[in-house]
Design goal:
CATH class of the largest domain: Alpha Beta
CATH architecture of the largest domain: 3-Layer(aba) Sandwich
Structural class: alpha/beta
Distance between the termini: 28 Å
CATH topology of the largest domain: Rossmann fold
Number of domains: 2
GO biological process, one term: bile acid metabolic process
Bound molecules: nicotinamide-adenine-dinucleotide
Strand content: 5-15%
Pfam families: adh_short_C2 (PF13561)
Strand order of the largest sheet: 3-2-1-4-5-6-7
Keywords: Oxidoreductase
GO molecular function, one term: oxidoreductase activity
Number of strands: 7
Radius of gyration: 18 Å
Helix content: 40-55%
Organism: Sharpea azabuensis
């Protein structure tokens, strides 16, 4: 299937690691021109070095900082003269006691995973209108459909699904589709890195980290394994492709069958 992404400018936030990195690599295979944002500049630099045959623009961006986002989008337009696809992917998660869940963490997570995607959509709309075409993919989560006990994460990801549906209706008249991807657990640094979900799961279960990570997959995921980042990236690439352009306002589960909800 011809995906029609060659020469399109694709913005991916949180592109230095995990799903964002795999997403950038997947668009590169389709011949897209990449514009990658992350707070981790070294990670972006390494990815740019890896993608030698692709046009890659990288910038250190804190997506929670409005100024930083606007500057980045201005630079992307200056670099490529068009913006076609936006993948709002930057995110994080934290397992914390619901009885004492700190307000500042909730606010930080909202800034990162809810306000930032809205900000980027708003920044890109004028460029999509200029093209007469555009596509947005918001990286939500299965925990936006089914509670995972992560409070801020679950509720913000549910909101990500709803902003996707609202913007799907708003943007369709100017030929832009907006969808959410809802991954189940994916094997990325979000689980493996120090202080991240693997360690938090280990602390919660009393199991050693590797054992806790494996146990979680075996007991929760029908396939018995985590998704590979590229399995999520493929969904993002498809939803923003030309043949999928009429798909609008969906929240696509890519979770190996873990969530039973059809919403
Ligand atoms: P990851 O930790 O590997 O990558 C997240 C990236 O976001 C990192 O490169 C990080 O530097 C960047 N980032 C964090 N804060 C930022 C900020 N303020 N500004 C710019 N960049 C920032 O995580 P991942 O697993 O690849 O997750 C990517 C997305 O997928 C997140 O939105 C996450 O919620 C979602 N998701 C992940 C899983 C999973 O199991 N890994 C499941 C469902 C959804």
């Amino acid at each position: 299937m011809e995906l029609g992404l060659e020469g399109r400018t694709v913005i991916v936030t949180g592109a230095a690691s995990g799903i964002g990195k795999a997403t950038a690599e997947a668009y590169a295979k389709e011949g897209a021109n990449l514009a990658l944002a992350d707070i981790n500049y070294d990670g972006l630099k390494a990815l740019k070095d890896e993608l030698k045959d692709t046009k890659v623009y990288i910038e250190k961006v804190d997506v929670t900082n409005a100024e930083s986002c606007k500057t980045f989008v201005d630079h992307v337009y200056k670099e490529y003269g068009r913006i076609d696809v936006l993948v709002n992917n930057a995110g994080t998660a934290k397992i914390m006691d619901l009885a004492t869940f700190p307000e500042d963490v909730f606010r930080k997570h909202s800034e990162l995973m809810l306000y930032a995607p809205v900000r980027f959509i708003q920044l890109c709309i004028p460029y999509f209108k200029e093209n007469g075409w555009g596509s947005v993919v918001n990286m939500a989560s299965m925990f936006g459909k089914q509670p995972g006990g992560l409070l801020s994460y679950d509720s913000i990801k549910a909101a990500d699904i709803m902003i996707s549906k609202d913007y799907a209706n708003y943007c369709a008249p100017f030929n832009v589709n907006v969808n959410a991807v809802c991954p189940g657990p994916v094997d990325t640094p979000l689980w493996r890195a120090k202080g991240q979900l693997g360690d938090q799961l280990s602390e919660a279960t009393g199991m050693e980290k590797e054992e806790a990570i494996k146990w979680y997959a075996k007991t929760n995921i029908p396939f018995g394994r985590y998704a590979k980042p590229e399995e999520i990236a493929n969904a993002a690439v498809f939803l923003s492709s030309e043949p999928a352009h009429y798909i609008n306002g969906v929240a696509l589960n890519v979770d190996g069958g873990m969530v039973k909800s059809t919403y």
